[in-house]
Amino acid sequence: MIAVIADDLSGAAELAGAALRHGLTAEVQLAFAPGVGADVVCLTTESRSLAAEDAARRVAEVTRAVMATRPRWIFKKCDSVLRGPVMAEARAVAQAAGKSRIVILAANPSRQRIVREGNYFIGGVPLAETGFARDPEHPRRSSRVADLLGGDLTGVATPDATTTSDPFGQAGAIDDATLPVGGVDFFTALLAVRCARRPERGESVDPAGPVLAVCGSAAAWDQRREQAAALGVPAFSLPPDAAAIDRALREAGRALVGIGSGPAVGGQRPEQLLARLATALGEVIGRGAVRSLLLEGGATAAAIVSAAGWSRLSVLAAPAPGVTALRPVGAGGPLLFIKPGSYDWPAALWPG
């Protein structure tokens, strides 16, 4: 087994999709379940929003449980723009896994996210000049990788990555004493270096109606609502009416639900809003009309999946970069499409 420890569900799903494209079987887990038989197990610790000390404690506990099963190797998935307590988590995993050195390569050159001379760029624009500078929870106000990581970087390498070949060069230099930390490009490169490629696994999977799209970001809500309106998709925001959403799904075959951006969300913490959304959607899912769920962002996906009572997700396909199709193991639930919040939905998947 190859083990991935991710700080959120969408990151775990993204790397599971990469494993599938390499011809490996993969499973995403919200709680570690050893002995499932998958080639790659991607665990989410849902620790990105925790204080550094709490995040380190959580990932260390998970890592110790994983290492007791003697995995072939372990990878620490972090956010591609280094949001959250990345350094604290990396050191905690390294210590629990017995690694003396860390290499952090979060850039994804395949998505025009690069590091050049220690500075992070997206599409040629310094990170601090992009929308990530206004992230409500983890604003990226510096473009320097060292600043974004903070703290002592002793024993930690943060190499540049400006081309799609750079992660492969770094992957080839990773030894048994080193913990690799980063994004999907680095993980994909490690798979290529360490595992013989097999015929690509996965099915041809498209969202089957009724389709429920979920936007847990208040910042992205206005854009998603406009997209839904242009396509004639009914849209609902907090406070959500489960009966009305269920009726729209049965009549129109699709719906968009989100936190929204109006008075109903004022003065509440993001986790409170997400909990309200997850509770309502748990009721909607329980009514049985939903056949496909489009979940945007790791925290949103984890809240919905947890509310539905699913802890293991089987990976079926990787229909587009950053998007993974999964189904709850043994639960007979709907088909799930999960993507990181910082990527757009491909037009072919978003309900149109």
Note the topology.
Elements: E1 2-6, H1 9-21, E2 26-29, E3 40-44, H2 52-67, E4 73-77, H3 86-97, E5 101-105, E6 113-116, E7 119-122, E8 125-126, H4 145-149, E9 156-157, H5 166-172, E10 178-182, H6 184-194, E11 211-215, H7 218-231, E12 235-237, H8 242-252, E13 254-258, H9 270-286, E14 292-296, H10 298-307, E15 312-320, E16 323-328, E17 335-339
Parallel strand pairs: 1-3, 1-4, 2-3, 4-10, 5-9, 5-10, 11-13, 11-14, 12-13, 14-17
Antiparallel strand pairs: 2-15, 6-7, 7-8, 15-16, 16-17
Helix pairs in contact: 1-6, 2-3, 5-6, 8-9, 9-10
Any overview of this molecule?
- By secondary structure, the protein is of the alpha/beta class.
- The chain folds into two domains: 2-194, Putative sugar-binding, N-terminal domain (Rossmann fold); 211-339, 3-Layer(aba) Sandwich (Molybdenum Cofactor Biosythetic Enzyme, Chain A), CATH 3.40.980.
- 33% of the residues lie in helices and 22% in strands.
- It is built from ten helices and 17 strands.
- It has helices at residues 9-21, 52-67, 86-97, 145-149, 166-172, 184-194, 218-231, 242-252, 270-286, 298-307, and strands at 2-6, 26-29, 40-44, 73-77, 101-105, 113-116, 119-122, 125-126, 156-157, 178-182, 211-215, 235-237, 254-258, 292-296, 312-320, 323-328, 335-339.
- The strands form two sheets. The chain has a 14-stranded mixed beta sheet with strand order 9-5-10-4-1-3-2-15-16-17-14-11-13-12, sandwiched between helices. The chain has a three-stranded antiparallel beta sheet with strand order 6-7-8, with no helix packed on it.
- Helix 1 runs parallel beside helix 6 (184-194) and helix 8 (242-252) crosses helix 9 (270-286).
- It is globular and about 55 Å long.
- The model has no long low-confidence stretch (mean pLDDT 91).
